Amino acid sequence: MTIEEIQNEIIDEFSMFEDWEERYQYMIDLGKELPLIDDQYKTDSNIIKGCQSKVWVHAEMKDDKLEFTADSDAIITKGIIAILIRTFSNQHPKDIIDADTSFIDDIGLKEHLSPTRANGLVSMVKQLKMYAIAYQTQLN
Amino acid sequence: MLDVEAIRKDFPILSREVNGKPLVYFDNAATSQTPQQVIHAIVDYYSNFNANIHRGVHTLSQEATDLYEQSRQKIQAHFNAKFSHEIIFTSGTTHGINLVANGFSSILKTGDEIIVSALEHHSNIVPWQMLCEHTGANLKVIPMNDQGELVMSEYDNLLSENTKLVFTNHISNALGTINPIEYIIKKAHAVGAAVLIDGAQACPHIKPDVQALDVDFYVASAHKMCGPTGVGMLYGKEAWLNKLPPYQGGGEMIAEVTFEKTTYADLPHKFEAGTPNIAGGIVFGTAIDYMNSIGFDAVAQYENELLEYATEKLLSIDGLKIYGTSKHKTSVLSFNLEGIHPYDVGSILDKLGIAVRTGHHCAQPIMDYYKIPGTIRASFAFYNTKSEIDALVEGVKKAKKMLS
């Protein structure tokens, strides 16, 4: 699936929820379910510091696709990471560079990706794109 | 006894909704809300008196200057300073601290010592680290205990003839602990050291008497005590303020300027370079009038009632731990739910229209002491109610259920 198709699928899933509580509960469950990152990559050099919660990101090239794993110490942050990983992982670097993240607004989680929230997520998205740019440069 | 329902009508913001719920504002330690009287004074200033001060011969300028100086006198009276020129208008507490730190850079020499408390806001530690780097002085820290109190026996051991300056907050922003500043000041003076107290968190709750405290410097911010942001005050004893060099160069702080030499203006203008926050300075006085019209004794009594009520209710939740359990504290509750990140709880409370602070509250050393990433902090003001606390308790229970 392309990034856009995955994003549309996520928007569809979220459209079934009636209120914020159901949306949050879903995210919390996503956050709980997923073992997101291998412990060996949960290092200080992979850490993105927000004022409030920590985020770890690891990237690896498999064939010509970029695979991400990530984690956070806060569960709602982790739920959003799960959604972002689902969209961006196993995609071509170029598609990651070109992708936008406005679907987060459409699923009612905009406030978590606001730069003022200081939870590390904004920097995380930036970091995912930086990895994509770096690997794209290698491919060229 | 204060009439909280009548008081709430003074604060327009308290009737707004957040995320479809009535706002419950429990982030008062970050900034207090603004009463109609203060909002009106801002509008009145810009509608009727706006002019630059201490400069013009015209009527508007003189009227604005009078209002500004009257406000300085109100602040002087409120803090019981001996002279009005001992009150310096600043942009806030941080500015006041930097002004003093900068002044001491010409006084300190290698081997001198500055003592700070472990309960500091970490942005307040930085000016002293910079000062030490610049002068070769050393920074010593008064440690804290499990209750979130400064350990006075350790403080006694740190003091020596090398101690030149002691700095602590009057009340901790992260935990609400009221520090024994009377003791700290007395002991510092016994070895000849000066004392600077950060009163940002204290001034919304108590009325400090700088002469009775015999404190050398005391700083505060208007926005924590129902005033506007961007204005605060530094109190300094006259002798100290005369001794410290000016902080910034510019208009108003000079007496005479030639290219060869400038002579500085007298206090307080020596430290007030450039056009100040005139409206803010004037309205700071209005905010002080407002707080005094409520009365600090009534405020303290009522807030203490809120604190006791909230402490009891919150502790009834299984797995909830409160940080900062000193007997001497103001209406600040810093807490966590076992195994749950404060950010998650804060996000859910926000959805319920409840404003709390989450994170390390810029007091990383305190969080490191407790080995936690941060806390949820609810801080109460005299315009909060017990039913709002009930909403918080229900919100925390809901967050716990959703997150565990």
TrEMBL record, chain A:
Q: Which InterPro entries match?
A: Fe-S_metab-assoc_dom
Show where the Fe-S metabolism associated domain sits: 12-130
Q: Which Pfam families match?
A: SufE
Top-level taxon of origin: Bacteria
Q: What's the family?
A: Belongs to the SufE family.
PANTHER family named in the record? SUFE-LIKE PROTEIN 2, CHLOROPLASTIC, SULFUR ACCEPTOR PROTEIN CSDE
In Swiss-Prot or TrEMBL terms, this protein is called SufE family protein
Species annotation: Seonamhaeicola maritimus
Where is the organism placed in the taxonomic lineage, from the top? Answer: Bacteria, Pseudomonadati, Bacteroidota, Flavobacteriia, Flavobacteriales
TrEMBL record, chain B:
* Record's keyword annotation contains Transferase: yes
InterPro entries given for it?
A: Aminotrans_V_dom (IPR000192), Aminotrans_V_PyrdxlP_BS (IPR020578), Cys_dSase_SufS (IPR010970), PyrdxlP-dep_Trfase (IPR015424), PyrdxlP-dep_Trfase_major (IPR015421), PyrdxlP-dep_Trfase_small (IPR015422)
Q: Does the keyword Transferase apply?
A: yes
Q: Which cofactor does it need?
A: pyridoxal 5'-phosphate
Q: What is its EC number?
A: 2.8.1.7
UniProt keywords, alphabetically: Pyridoxal phosphate, Transferase
Output the CDD domains linked to this UniProt entry.
SufS_like
User: Which molecular function terms from Gene Ontology are attached?
Assistant: cysteine desulfurase activity; pyridoxal phosphate binding
Aminotransferase class V domain location: 24-392
Q: Which GO terms describe its biological process?
A: cysteine metabolic process
Q: Which reaction does it catalyse?
A: (sulfur carrier)-H + L-cysteine = (sulfur carrier)-SH + L-alanine
- At the top level of its lineage, which domain of life is listed? Bacteria
Hey, which family's this protein in? Belongs to the class-V pyridoxal-phosphate-dependent aminotransferase family. Csd subfamily.
Entries under NCBIfam families matching the protein? sufS (TIGR01979)
Describe its function.
Catalyzes the removal of elemental sulfur and selenium atoms from L-cysteine, L-cystine, L-selenocysteine, and L-selenocystine to produce L-alanine.
Q: What is this protein called?
A: Cysteine desulfurase
Q: Which organism is it from?
A: Seonamhaeicola maritimus
